[in-house]
Peptidoglycan-associated lipoprotein (Flavobacterium panici), 727 residues
Amino acid sequence: MKKQLLILFILITSVSAKAQSYLGYFHDNYAGVQSVLFNPASIADSRFKTDINIFSVSGSVQNDLYGVKVFDTYKKGYDFDSESKMFPKNANNALVNVDVMGPSFMFNIAPKHTIAVFTRARSITNAKKINGYLVDQVKDGLDEASDFNFNLGNPNGSSNAWGELGISYAAVLYQNNQHFLKGGLTAKYLQGGANAYVQGKDVSVRYVENTANPQLGVLQSSGEITVGGSQDWENNEDYDFDSASRGFGFDFGLVYEWRPDYDQYDLRNAKPADNNFRDLNKYKLRFGLSVTDIGSMNYKNSKLDTYNVNGIVTQQMIDDADNLYDFLNDHYTKVSTSKGVKTNLPTAIHADADWNMYNKFYLNLNGDISMVSANKINLYGIADRVTLTPRYESRWFSFYVPVTYMQYSGMQVGTGLRTGVFFIGSGSILSNLVSKESKGADFHIGMKIPVYEKQFKDTDGDGIIDKEDACKKVAGPKENNGCPWPDTDGDKVFDKDDACPDVKGPKENKGCPWKDSDGDTLLDNVDACPAVAGPVENKGCPWPDTDGDGVLDKDDACPNVAGLAVNKGCPDLDADKDGVLDKEDDCPLVAGPADNKGCPKVTKETLAQLKVEAKSIFFNTGKATLDGAKMGETSGRLDAIKEILKNYPNAKFAINGHTDNVGNPKANQKLSEARAKAVMDLLIEKGVNPANLTSKGYGASKPVKTNKTALGRAENRRTEIVYLGNL
């Protein structure tokens, strides 16, 4: 008897529902504007220029009382009561949700900033703590039930339908090498539609049948039931829409991406065709965290009735009732109020981790946690869940298989796909195909117009994208709109730079052939004196005689001072004033005695100074490289040695290297030779004549101190400069 069953259900609770939308689809990088509903930060740095939702809808039904073979319920003659399997307990729950997204869009307003605007209609019905044993007892009607006595406790149910107009803003907050963070915020205008709720307090029911006369069976109840709604449902048979029932809400979220290959997407290396890599997913791991549906709406014309249901009614009273309100008003005490009621949104926390396993294959783990208390009246929440979703995604196609543990209905497996403008899926279809005891079902479907970010074409590879290239198949400079410059005479000088475009000539002469202006057989490009004839040997210039001594500069050893031809154009000179004429002086610029051919003699003091300077050249341990920590001192010592040696241009010096006896003798020998040569090479670099120097290594063969002490070994590790005689 449907009337009896309806009345009994109202006395204890109402049917309840709560669920998620678009299960398995939200986390696709090409979900576009739909993803803003889960986490507003997701639309920043997206793969879209813009994404326009035409229409999409998601629905879900779940419970923990009835198990059915879902696809049998569509068969003609299916009897839900007899063919379903019940799982009663003291607190059963059922879940239903409808989420419709109307015309909506998102687009990038700058490289790091994105906005979205969406319209949405939602309906959520929540009921909790339904005594499933009582439902099982009276599913065929009170007059078919035997005696029962149940304590129902505090059942709670509510239903709400409303519309949303939302605007979301998301931006890149931080970007540093492999670390990438973005955030987003959504503000929503809420328009209330219809709201109804019921809550029991310490409710118990007892039914005593009368086998002789079923109409005299009695239903005894106790406790308190509160029934409320967005308007006076008792006196209004038709629904009256109240435009003043409105409110505000918001969502916020963060998304972090780990991009270990960030150097591949360095914008400094991007070519115009790369379009700044906007079409690519750059992360290896992505983590998202968001809080949605913070806010409420106010139903200003709400009516609330509280019934004290302590009493007894008969089966006949139930059958005689025309409607629910008449029955409650006729048999129970009521307290009524009419005032505005604030209805909260189903606030929830969402978290997900997305792993790019390989190429276009991903694995997503996400979960939802309701932040709404199950005990408060007229409050709405989602079902807690955890979902693991492997997926394949590309620009025009995605395929995903969500595996979900859902509060109340348990495990379910589904699948879905996206093909450009169309997407469809279900988080439970696969499990419903095989299970005979499914406790939940859901679906989502939609159509959209995606406009993707993509690489630009550059067919000829000249760095100018095809849409801006006047010659798409032939490389050319940007200055000529991507077309090559012409070269009429084929001399590899473009006509724009060729002073003689019809005659071949070198680039150095602006595309014109070279002339021989002075007729000396040398073309002007190689003639140092193009206007005056001269010999080839002097690059086309006449030989000069600067000092006028009859000896041409090319043969004159003293071109600026008149001299004798027999003296190569130089006068007899004694430049260093040492009494030895320069022509007989081996050191004409340094004074020295005649018995040493005008060169200074190396003194004991000089050798002693060289010994001091050479002793303070420091090397890295075991190497022939200079000690960086003492580089300043060593460089100063080398400069001092150079200044000493340049005073003896005809003297021969040896650079000798010595080591201590620690280590392999052969290695010590090679090290001493390398260090001696290193010092010689450094002196040559500083300007010492190579002819004045030789180098030799002696290893540990010539110690100056004992090798038994650290101090002695330090003295033995040395370089020395030894005078060998004159050249």
